[in-house]
Amino acid sequence: MAPKSAPSKPAPKPAQAAASNPVLSLWTSYNEQTSDRLRFIDAFLVFLMLTGVVQFVYCVLVTNFPFNAFLAGFSSTVGQFVLTASLRAQVNPENKNEFKEVSPERAFADFAFGSIVLHFFVFNFLG
């Protein structure tokens, strides 16, 4: 005689699944409440972080022969990450009280100017 199968529980609804899994809850909240502009900036931040990790792993595992090239590339990645993070903080609508006198256009102009200066120094560091 075949064993009787236990009655299966009904599948949890998406809202219940999100409440039971904090990562899923965080992800759905992020997608629902974050503007496209901030998500684009966040994607660029993730790209910069992954680029820095790849550069560091390459330096450790393969070679760091032109060490000044590694330092220039890695410092360029870290510097660009910092500039982008400050841009995100300035254009976030939730931070309007902290950046009252800075418009999003001004924040982007500061970001662009800072990026140009950063890459000028990185290029000069290469030699």
Radius of gyration based on Cα positions: 23 Å
Low-pLDDT windows of residues? none
Classify the secondary structure makeup into a structural class: mainly alpha
* H and E string: HHHHH
Write down how many β-strands occur, each being a DSSP E stretch of 2 or more residues: 0
Number of distinct helices: 5
Q: Considering DSSP H and I runs of 4 or more, what fraction of the residues is helical? A: over 70%
**Main beta sheet: strand number and arrangement?**
none
Distance between the termini: 81 Å
Indicate the proportion of strand residues.
under 5%
Average pLDDT level: 86
Shape, please?
flat
Considering the chains and any ligands shown, give keywords for the structure:
127 residues, 5 helices, flat
Describe this structure in words.
The structure is a single chain. With 127 residues, this protein is mostly helical. It contains five helices and no strands. Helix 1 crosses helix 2, helix 3 packs antiparallel against helix 4 and helix 4 runs antiparallel to helix 5. The longest helix is centred in the middle third of the chain and has 26 residues. It is flat, with a radius of gyration of 23 Å.
Offer a quick outline of the entry.
This protein is mostly helical and 127 residues long. 73% of the residues lie in helices and 0% in strands.
Topology:
Layout: H1 14-20, H2 22-33, H3 36-61, H4 67-91, H5 104-126
Helix pairs in contact: 1-2, 3-4, 4-5
